[in-house]
Amino acid sequence: MIDKASRQDSLVVLTEGAIITALAMGLSYIPHSTGVSSIEFVYGLIPMSIYALRRGLKPGLMAGLVWGLLDMLLRGLSTGGVLNPFQGIVEYPLAFAVVGLIGLGSVRVQQAIKNGKNALGLIIFYSAIGFFAKYFLHFIAGGIYWGSYAPKTMNPWIYSLVINGGSFVANMIMLLVLAVILNRIFKQLIIPKN
């Protein structure tokens, strides 16, 4: 039997996940192009990173999955971002869900913060795992499904690597800058009170 405190904790985690997912989705509507063809900042990765580090792997994966489904329904289908069901599943629910892999570092990051150590390196390392997994899936889908959009003289896999690798690097730079700025408040952002 689940006790009342456990249910309340689960409700808090679920509520936080819903708020973070809504925030990530809302941030998707802010212009985010770098000016280079198809290389984009994904601002929602920042709150998702914080949530996964705060609540762990499973909540991070679930929040990312819901974010991916919402993005596919609200943006992907209406903008031509879904070419077929397989590509849609890989590039939306699956690619967004794996961002939750950042939660693999939840315990280590929280312990470092509680012990007064600088957790910046750990945060960047585990965020890189989630970001890389997301853009690796986009790279695979890009090579398979988006190859016809590559310049005629360029191999589709190289084109996908440039676009998705560029987006990975751009988002890692964004994370690095924001992590340095937010370094002083990591405790409030990442350590749950309950």
TrEMBL record:
GO MF term (any one): thiamine transmembrane transporter activity
Keywords: Membrane, Transmembrane, Transmembrane helix
Gene3D superfamilies: 1.10.1760.20
Parts of the chain that traverse the membrane: 12-30, 36-53, 60-77, 89-107, 119-137, 157-182
InterPro entries in the record: Thia_Transptr_ThiT
Regions annotated as coiled coil: none
Glycosyltransferase found in the keyword field: no
GO cellular component: plasma membrane
NCBIfam families: ECF_ThiT_YuaJ
Protein name: Energy-coupled thiamine transporter ThiT
UniProt source species: Companilactobacillus alimentarius DSM 20249
